[in-house]
Design brief:
Layout: E1 5-13, E2 19-28, E3 33-37, H1 44-51, E4 62-69, E5 72-73, H2 81-87, E6 88-91, H3 102-112, H4 118-131, H5 135-138, H6 151-163, E7 169-173, H7 181-194, E8 199-203, H8 207-213, E9 216-221, E10 224-230, H9 231-235, H10 238-247
Parallel strand pairs: 3-8, 3-9, 6-7, 7-8
Antiparallel strand pairs: 1-2, 1-4, 4-5, 9-10
Helix pairs in contact: 3-4, 3-6, 4-6, 6-7
Amino acid sequence: MGPKIVVKNVYFTYGDGTEALHNVSMEIASYQIFVLFGPARAGKTTLLRLFNRLSDLIENATVQGQILFNGRDIFERGTDVIDLRRRIGMVFAIPTPLPGSIRDNITYGLRMAGIRNRDELESRVERSLTQAALWNEVKDRLDKPASALSGGQKQRLCIARSLALEPEVLILDNPTSGLDPLSTAMVEESLHELKQRYTIIMVPHSVQQAARVATTAAFMLDGEIIEVGSADQIFGQPQVKQTEDYVTGRFG
C-alpha cells in the first residue's frame, strides 16, 4: 500500500506576496495520526487547508508543486472538489454545530450527499457518534438542540459530523484549544480509536499533546518542514526540548 498523501515541492504564496510554504515535501501513510507542530505562522494551517483545497477560497493566492491523494494530483484539471472535501474531512479549532438538533447535525451532510433512506441515516448517526466517543452521552437526546452540548461534546459532534460522510482522511486543526483537560483527554482517546479506520492529520494544541497522540510528527518553521519522523524519533531527541522552549509549549 502506497502513502495516502504525498506532498511534492509545494510553495504557497498569499495575495500580498507573503510566502507561507516553501518547498514542502513529505509523505503521510494511511491509518495513523500525523501531527504537524511548530510555532505560530509556521505554515501548519496553510498546509492543512491545501489538502482539501480550502485554499481555493483565498483570493489571489498561488500554489506550486503537487499534492497526491491516493496517487492523484488534487490540483489537476477536472478534480471534483466537493468529493475531495467529503473524502478529506476537516474539523476546526472552534466547534461550530449547525442550528438544530444533534441528529440534524449528523444527517444534514448526508442528506446533501443524496442519502434519504431512514435506516441508513439512523445507522450513520449511531456509528459516527460512537466513533467520536459521544453516543453514550447523547443517545437519549438526539432531538435536543446541539447548542446545549458542552464545549467538549460540541467538538466531538463536529468530528462525528465529518465521520458520518465516511471520509478517508480526517484533518483536525487545533481541535482541543478551547477545551478543559477532561474534554481534551476524551477527544484524544477517541483519536487513538479512530486511527484504526482513518488517516488523521492534526495540528495539536501543544508539544505535550503532539507527543501523546502522534504516530508520526513533522516540525515546521517559517513555512518549511524541518524534520519528519516517528513520535519516538521526534519527541525522544534532545533538540525537541529546545523546540519546546522556542514555541513555549503552545501554538497559534
